[in-house]
UniProtKB/TrEMBL annotation:
<dbReference type="Pfam" id="PF00111">
    <property type="entry name" value="Fer2"/>
</dbReference>
<protein>
    <submittedName>
        <fullName>Ferredoxin</fullName>
    </submittedName>
</protein>
<dbReference type="InterPro" id="IPR036010">
    <property type="entry name" value="2Fe-2S_ferredoxin-like_sf"/>
</dbReference>
<dbReference type="InterPro" id="IPR006058">
    <property type="entry name" value="2Fe2S_fd_BS"/>
</dbReference>
<dbReference type="InterPro" id="IPR012675">
    <property type="entry name" value="Beta-grasp_dom_sf"/>
</dbReference>
<dbReference type="InterPro" id="IPR001041">
    <property type="entry name" value="2Fe-2S_ferredoxin-type"/>
</dbReference>
<dbReference type="GO" id="GO:0051537">
    <property type="term" value="F:2 iron, 2 sulfur cluster binding"/>
</dbReference>
<feature type="domain" description="2Fe-2S ferredoxin-type">
    <location>
        <begin position="4"/>
        <end position="85"/>
    </location>
</feature>
Length: 85
């Protein structure tokens, strides 16, 4: 299974994220709390700024996103990431 590295800029941490887990699921497993509501890309309350890297979505999210934002609740990593968290 592919493992990606996620650099959390504000927390000054680097965590490993298995490709088969959403970023939010992995943050929770690591004991890192992050705001969320829907877990399906509908509300956008979990959005974070993506500084580097790529993600994909199994289903296109309904929440409006800027080009540099991602939804941890439903994204899947496609590369190592650097996020403003």
């Amino acid at each position: 299974m592919k493992i990606y590295l996620v650099h959390l800029i504000r927390s000054r941490r680097i965590i490993e994220n298995p490709a088969d887990l959403s970023l939010l699921e992995n943050l929770e497993r690591q004991g890192i709390q992050h705001e969320y509501q829907c877990r399906s890309g509908y509300c956008g309350s979990c959005r974070v700024r993506l500084k580097k890297g790529r993600v994909s979505y199994p289903q296109p999210p309904l929440a409006f996103l800027q080009e540099d934002e991602i939804l941890p609740c439903c994204c899947r990593l496609e590369s190592d990431l650097e996020i403003d968290l």
